[in-house]
């Protein structure tokens, strides 16, 4: 294949738009779930806590398309799990040297659970993001406990919105045909999760070695890339994420030039969520354009000592590049038969005899 043909194929792959059968009500419900806590926080003069609650409300995105009883039980379990991840991230302030292994272990466990129960995207992404943002937030002592309470309330609100949305969508559209979930396999559940967790930890270690400011976005970028279904998918996501982040940083810079008040920040974040949930199933790169300003605003807007917008632009682009490169390396290992055979044999030797039979 010539260079021209390779470039043409890459451009077609990057520009391809997928079809979506997602109901239009879902992005609207997601925007209500994540936007309302910010408006409530602003009304009480607590924008920072509203943003933390909105971060917890991202658990809404884990709502499956199953029968009502199952989807609510699963979402409540996810709400508990993501709150625990955020709490562990806050506890990392007491032991900063353990933050890298902590994020790696959280990634391994969250990925194992999501894969064992065949959870659809975003998988373990928000669990890791909640832990990473908490680990590098400036909250300390009693403020951290208040922040954790706001985060938990955000998950409760999201579950309530999900219940009302589910009642509406099931009554109108019924349930789609559900394929039988695949039987969990050791390689898919355990091996993949361990490899993913190790590379997420390595990405954060690289961020510390490079002395990046608030490097919570590095492990998130790494995880988003390495979770690709194939090496080809991981490479496409690698390109889409870097290009989308670059454009998204320009969108963030444009937002900062408007000098929004707290009510304006709440409105912009709600609109960004609506756009992301409309686009993410169609084109990941386009969604990343809006994911970038959303995450920066969620993580930084409530901090009076926040970084200058120009500095945030540089650090976020470097964070994304570092995480994407390590994530692509991890994806190459994950989809290498030789690497998998060696890692599989090594992991099985670590387990007690017969311990892997139930996976």
TrEMBL record:
Cite the Integral membrane bound transporter domain residue spans from the record: 203-329
Kindly list the places in or outside the cell where this protein is found, as annotated in its UniProt entry.
Answer: Membrane
Q: How does it sit in the membrane?
A: Multi-pass membrane protein
For this protein, the parts annotated as crossing the membrane are 28-61, 73-92, 98-118, 149-167, 188-210, 216-235, 242-258, 264-281
Q: What is this protein called?
A: FUSC family protein
| Family annotation (Pfam families) | FUSC_2
Single GO cellular component annotation? membrane
Under the heading InterPro entries, the entry gives:
Memb_transporter_dom (IPR049453)
Highest taxon of source: Bacteria
Principal location listed in the UniProt entry: membrane
Record bears the keyword Membrane: yes
Q: For this UniProt record, give its keywords in alphabetical order, as a comma-separated list.
A: Membrane, Transmembrane, Transmembrane helix
């Amino acid at each position: 294949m010539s260079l021209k043909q390779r470039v043409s194929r890459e451009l077609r792959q990057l520009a391809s738009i997928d079809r979506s059968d997602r109901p239009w009500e879902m992005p609207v419900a997601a925007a209500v779930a994540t936007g309302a806590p910010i408006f409530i926080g602003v009304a009480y003069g607590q924008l920072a806590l509203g943003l933390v609650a909105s971060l917890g409300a991202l658990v809404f995105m884990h709502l499956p398309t199953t029968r009502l009883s199952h989807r609510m039980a699963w979402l409540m379990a996810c709400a508990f799990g993501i709150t625990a991840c955020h709490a562990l991230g806050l506890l990392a302030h007491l032991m900063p040297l353990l933050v890298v292994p902590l994020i790696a272990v959280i990634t391994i466990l969250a990925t194992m659970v999501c894969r064992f129960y065949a959870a659809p995207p975003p998988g373990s992404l928000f669990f890791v993001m909640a832990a990473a943002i908490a680990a590098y937030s400036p909250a300390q002592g009693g403020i951290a406990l208040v922040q954790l309470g706001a985060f938990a309330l955000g998950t409760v609100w999201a579950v309530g919105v999900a219940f009302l949305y589910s009642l509406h969508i099931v009554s109108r559209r019924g349930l789609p045909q559900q394929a039988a979930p695949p039987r969990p396999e050791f390689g898919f559940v355990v091996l993949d999760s361990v490899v993913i967790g190790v590379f997420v930890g390595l990405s954060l270690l690289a961020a510390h070695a490079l002395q990046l400011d608030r490097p919570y976005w590095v492990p998130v970028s790494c995880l988003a890339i390495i979770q690709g279904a194939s090496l080809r998918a991981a490479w496409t996501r690698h390109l889409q994420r870097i290009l989308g982040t670059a454009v998204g940083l320009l969108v963030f810079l444009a937002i900062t030039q408007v000098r929004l008040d707290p009510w304006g920040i709440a409105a912009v974040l709600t609109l960004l969520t609506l756009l992301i949930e409309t686009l993410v199933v169609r084109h990941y790169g386009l969604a990343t354009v809006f994911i970038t300003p959303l995450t920066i605003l969620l993580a930084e807007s409530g901090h009076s000592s926040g970084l200058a917008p120009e500095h945030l632009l540089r650090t976020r682009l470097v964070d994304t590049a570092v995480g994407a490169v390590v994530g692509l390396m991890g994806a190459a290992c994950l989809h290498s038969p030789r690497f998998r055979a060696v890692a599989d044999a090594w992991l099985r030797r670590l387990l007690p005899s017969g311990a892997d039979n139930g996976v």
